[in-house]
Design brief:
This is H-NS histone family protein. The chain is mainly alpha-helical. Helices cover 52% and strands 3% of the residues.
Length: 118
């Protein structure tokens, strides 16, 4: 592609160029993603794995990205509240109250009833 002197272009020309670039970028992205996916599928098959197994192996990475964290960055936070009916239900006191605790409070009980003695 020839060099384009965008400094000499009008606003309308720049907007038109941007639209063309966005369309071209989207097309190239799809092309490159397909090449990568095909290569990944071939490597999986060569190693005697199914594509489904490869996708399952990638899930922890996509879940971490959606949460905005990785397993390495999570920390253990001290439990401050525990559900006496189900000791597996705990809350650290950070963020929104756990559903089980909110239900008890809505039923008229006090949050401090569920505080863990330290």
């Amino acid at each position: 592609m020839a060099d384009v002197d965008v400094g000499k272009m009008s606003y309308a020309e720049l907007v038109s160029l941007r639209a063309k670039l966005e369309q071209e970028i989207a097309g190239k992205r799809d092309e490159e993603l397909k090449v990568l996916a095909d290569g990944y599928a071939k490597k999986l098959q060569a190693a005697a794995f199914s594509v489904e197994e490869g996708i399952k192996a990638l899930l922890p990475y996509t879940e971490a990205k959606q949460r905005g964290t990785t397993n390495a960055s999570t920390s253990n936070v001290r439990v401050l509240y525990r559900d006496p009916a189900n000791p597996a239900n705990t809350w650290s006191g950070r963020g929104q109250p756990a559903r089980w605790l909110a239900q008890y409070v809505a039923a008229g009980r006090q949050r401090e009833e569920f505080r863990v003695e330290s």
